[in-house]
Structure formats: C-alpha cells, structure tokens
Amino acid sequence: MTSPFANPNRPGVPPRLPTPPTGWPIGSYATYEEAQRAVDHLAVEDFTVQDVMIVGVDLMLVERITGKLTWSRVLMTGAASGAWFGLFVGLLLTLFSPEPGVTVGPVLTGLITGVFFGLVFAAVGYGSARGKRDFQSASQLVANRYDVLCHPKSAEKGRDLLARLAMRPVNPGN
Fold first, then answer.
1. Hey, CA dihedral for 55, 58, 59, 64, is it positive or negative?
2. What are phi and psi of 165, to 5 degrees?
3. Does 133 score more than 90 pLDDT?
4. Disulfide engineering: 26 pairs with which of 12, 80, 127, 159, CB 3.0-4.6 Å?
5. Domains of the chain: total
C-alpha cells in the first residue's frame, strides 16, 4: 500500500501537481505559528513528521496598503530599479572587456542607461493606469485556521503528543 503523503514515483517527495490533502486531523490552530509549533513539538518527540502536513483552511487574499503612489515616488523607484539593473549589466560588461580590472566606462554606461530605461518604463506604466491604482500594497495569502493532518497509521500517537503540548503553558521564547 502506498502512502497518500508521498509521490508514488519518488517516495518522500511531495507531488508536483496540486493534490488535495489526505489524512486524519490531529490538531487545529488559529495561526500558522501555532501549527508550526505543534509540528516542531512532534519532531522533538521523535514522531515521524514525514507523515504530517499543515493545511490552511478557508483561504483569503489580504492586501495591505503600504502607501500612496505619486509621480515622484514612481519615478524614484523606477530610477533606482533601473540603476541596479544597469550596474549589474555594466559589471558584466567589464568581465568581457579586453582591458584587465574593472573599468569605469562600461559600469557608468550601464548605470546611466539603466536609470534612463527605468524612468521611461516606470512613467509609461504609471501613466497608462490613469489614476486607477494610486497606491502601493503587499498581498498575502492567509487561512482562517490551520489543521495538522497525519497519516492514519500514526494519527493516534500524534493526537496524544499534541494533547500533552496543549496542556503545557506557552513560553514566548519557544
């Protein structure tokens, strides 16, 4: 019998295609940190953690607004991004230069060209939005709860270990 937790082609390796989780629930937690703490506890107790998975249930996409976009911010960000890329290209050009050592010419050319194109692309991108998204944000995928599932053969032992963990006081350092 094969384990539903492993790839049948390569034991111990998760499947490459999206696969629904299987197993019996041995714990349910409000935060990922708590679920991670539970699995860490199982590992410390020499439990076979390869039989365990953390499953986020009721997924949500949370977009936190980090600031307002203005022309000056867009252009500064574009210039900085272009400068880094141009500096990288300039340094690559010095590697293939016939002169020994780092020469300033290719680095400076790459830097200036990078800043120019970074400004142009940032301006075109922001201008084409026409004020429809004048803010910056960071997105995060979060779950309403996190279940710890386990292969049925060792679920009872896992539940017992997690029950003992639940009886211990939570230490902020652990």
1. negative
2. -65, -40
3. no
4. 159
5. 2
| Pair (88, 128) in one structural domain | yes
Give the pLDDT score at 1.
44
Cα–Cα–Cα angle for 123, 83, 111, rounded to 5 degrees: 120
Count of CA atoms in the C-beta half-sphere (13 A) of 74: 19
Boundaries of domain holding 106:
70-133
Task: Return the CATH number at 155.
Answer: 3.30.70
Residues 107 and 76 in one domain: yes
Residues, the chain: 174
Are the C-beta atoms of residues 172 and 105 closer than 8 Å to each other?
no
d(CA 35, CA 55): 9
Co-location of 75 and 106 in the same domain = yes
Task: Tell me the whole-structure pTM to 2 decimals.
Answer: 0.63
Specify the DSSP class assigned to residue 5: T
Residue 172 has pLDDT above 70, yes or no: no
Q: Phi first, then psi: what are they for 31, rounded to 5°?
A: -130, 155
Q: Looking at the domain assignment, is residue 4 inside a domain?
A: no
Q: Sheet of 24-29: strands edge to edge? A: 24-29, 135-150, 52-68
